[in-house]
Amino acid sequence: MKIDAVDIPDEELDFATSRSSGPGGQNVNKVSTRVTLLFDVDQSTALSDRQRELLHERLAGRINRSGILRVTSQRHRTQSANREAALERFACLLTEAFSETPQRVPTRIPAQINQKRLDEKRRRARVKQTRAIDLSDEE
Q1: Which of the chain's ends, N or C, has fewer CB atoms near its CB within 10 Å?
Q2: Is the separation of the CB atoms in 33 and 79 below 8 Å?
């Protein structure tokens, strides 16, 4: 499987099937249509050390302690369609993980906007002060 700069051999991808949940009638109860793609990030020969680091950093929630990345699909009613969907999702995840995040360009808030905000705060404070009840007169 070719993903951007990485060519992952099919032997490194394991697929497990199980019964899917949700609607689908008897088909759900009888046929194992859910597909789980398992990819061993730590043992993969296709990944460089930097790529492994990026995957562990950016996909930490999907990788277990053994270094296995899990992608599950149960959207479709057939096993083959779910297998394709899992592969597509796997490719998207790796592409996103390997893409470099663009540098943020620092911006400044215009002075006029800051002044307007502060003026509005002062106005609201005056409005609230005029609403205050003077408790010293009631005694």
Answers
A1: C
A2: yes
Q: How far, rounded to the nearest angstrom, does the alpha carbon of residue 82 sit from its chain's CA centroid?
A: 20
Q: Cα Rg for the chain, rounded, in angstroms? A: 28
How far is Cα of residue 94 from the mean position of the Cα atoms in its chain? 12
Residue 111 lies in a domain: no
Per the domain annotation, does 12 fall within a domain? yes
Domain assignment present for residue 114? The answer is no
pTM value is: 0.67
pLDDT tens for 42-67 read: 888 888 888 888 888 888 888 999 88
More confident residue, 115 or 101: 115
Q: Which helix (H) or strand (E) holds 70?
A: strand 68-73
Q: Measured on CA atoms in the order 98, 102, 103, 108, is the torsion positive or negative?
A: negative
CATH code of the domain covering residue 40:
3.30.160.20
Range of the domain at 65: 2-98
Secondary element (H or E) of residue 130: helix 111-131
